[in-house]
Structure formats: C-alpha cells, structure tokens
Amino acid sequence: MEIAVCDDNELFLREMGELLGAMSLVGNIYPFSSLDAFLFSIDQGRQYDAVLMDIEWNKKSTGIDAAEELYGLCPRAKVVYVTGHSQRFFQQVYLRPANLSGFLSKPIDPVLLEANIKKISDGLIFEDQPSLTLQLRGKPISQPLKDICYLESRLHYILIQTTGETLQTRGSLASFLDLLTPDFYQCHKSYIVNMRHIRRFRDTDILMKDGTPIPVSRTRYQRSRDAFFHFMGGNF
After folding, report:
1. Tens of pLDDT along 185-206?
2. What CA–CA distance (Å, rounded) separates 109 from 66?
3. What are the extents of the domains in the chain?
4. Nearest to 225 by CA among 206, 210, 211, 197
5. Strand order of the sheet with strand 148-154?
C-alpha cells in the first residue's frame, strides 16, 4: 500500500513513519508537513491508497479542506482523519465530500492504526477496479471504467459520459481504445460504448440504460450486436 501521512508536526510524522513501517501491509510511506506539497504531489500524478490526514493545521485551510480536494483529484484514495480534538471536528467530517475510511485520535493507538490499515487493504482487494487517468483542467483524475457509459468524439475533444457527470478532455477515440477493457466496443466512428451500460439494441441504434440513444454505423451494426450478445453470454 502507498500511504501519505499529512501533519504539520515533524515529530508526529517520524513516529507515524515508524509505526507504519513495521506493518507488512504498508509499502511506501510519504510524509508531508505541508498541505500544498501534498496536493502538488497529487497534481503531478502521485496516487495513494490511503492518506492519514491531520485535521487542524496552522493555516486557514484544514485537513478537511485538503481531503475534499483530494476526493476530486484521486477519489479512490481512502482518508483516515487524525486529530487531538475529536469532539471539535466530529460533525464537520461528515458534511464534506471525502472518501472517508476512519478516524483516529492522538495519541495514536497502534492497534487501532493497524486495524484501519487492514480495513483499507481488505477493501482494496474488492474495490480496486481498472480506471482511466484523465487530464481535466490541467489536473489528473482517476475515473473508474465501470462508471463510464460511453465516449463520444466531438472535433478535437472526447466527451466521457459517466453515471454521474460528463467529462471533457482532448484526444481521439483511437487513443482511448488501448486504455479500455473488453467491456468497451466501438460501434460508430464517433462512439465507444461500455456494454455493461447497454439496455438493448434497436433497429438503428443502441439504447443505453440511462435512456441515451447511441448511433451505430450500418457497417458495424451486426458486429456490434454480436459483440454485445457474446459479452452478455459470458456475464450471466
């Protein structure tokens, strides 16, 4: 596991490094005494499995602010809040978006720390899904492939329709084909569909589960239909 520890107390960072370093589940440990340095590492493409985040910093921003920004940049990273003032922040941590996994009070109980790390590790086995790293507004984000419904080419842009939003990035459909799993099929020169999100084939198009009609090229129709039924046959 790749773990970041964020705290403005250098002594605490060293102590956490020693505790985590003794755990077999932990791989690399990245200490940060600056929230800006931590978020910059995310901007540069660093991915973490878990982040132990101190809530209270000697700045206007808090660990809760940083965790919210982390959620937008790297939604798979699990956050464990760490604080010496648990009652003060107890309600706030549940009001802001974050991939929250746990809450630890200082001084840290090594048994509870290891239990949190094991919980995250166990969850990664089940939750670790193939994802697509996208550059959006100059920042990398990780988008799980299972949540992508289809990709559409428009001029020099690719629109990626997910189950929750539409993302836009530069590129071509051809550049994405090698990054996608066999769940995806190009049914039209301008569309790639995730077959997991198809409701049914119609005479001239594909109806997605969200109600969107996707055009199918005449020359690709039979192959697209065969690919879909082959895929469905292997997933019943």
Report:
1. 999 999 999 998 999 999 999 9
2. 24
3. 3-127, 131-233
4. 206
5. 166-170, 157-162, 148-154, 191-194, 184-188
